[in-house]
Amino acid sequence: MMKVNTKRIFIVTFSVVFLVLIITSNTLFSNQKILMSNADLTSKEYYSLSVECGLKLSFDDYIMICSVVQGETAGADLYWSELVAEVIKNRLLSKDFPNTIYDILTQPNQFDAIENYYNGIEINAITYQAVTNVFSNKDYLTSHRLKGATYYCNPDILSPSIVEWFNSNLTMTYDAYYTSNGYTYHHVFYK
To answer: Under the phi-then-psi rule, with left for phi > 0, alpha for psi from -120 to 50, and beta for the rest, what region is 137?
Structure first.
């Protein structure tokens, strides 16, 4: 009896969908491009997404980011999802944070939603689009709003002492609200 490798089927299927999305979304802007390279398919599917400063994301990095954004935003709209993705990108580009997506997303007490990556959370099309928008360097809904923010928090659910730490040690760059199904989400962004 043949064993079906569902993870490999998912990755290959998603890769094709992702490639079609990239091609159809006309992602060539000025000198910035999304570069998709398909190398050594016999050992592992590998794709890279070019980011600023010559950095590249592997396909695994991309899925890891999408999983975290999906969990952090609860599958919210494109705008809200781009805000969270941009914080991750800003950390990748900052000298104050680790230089790999894995290390950024698994830092203690930073992105609790990293568990979604390991638990196989279902990622919606909005999240895929938001992460692609932010990491492909094209102009997107939230471009330039965060002004380099590398942190965010929801002050409505944190203890006053934690909110005070954010306000005392960081500079607020953006205050955002999002309402869905009668609940208003609130995040304050800092650098």
So the answer is: left
Scanning the structure block, which residue is given the tokens 């962004």?
Answer: 189
Please tell me the number of Cα atoms within 13 Å of 75 on its side-chain side. 7
pLDDT, one tens digit per residue, over 149-161 is: 999 999 999 999 9
Q: Six-digit token pair at 141?
A: 């809904």
Rounded CA-CA distance 146/122 in Å is 27
- Per-position b or e across 82-103, b if 16+ CB within 10 A of its CB: bbbbbbbbbbbeeeebeeebee
Phi, psi of 14 (to 5 degrees): -65, -40
**pLDDT tens readout for residues 7-37:** 565 555 555 444 444 444 433 333 233 333 3
The pTM assigned to this predicted structure is 0.71
Structure tokens at 159: 């203890």
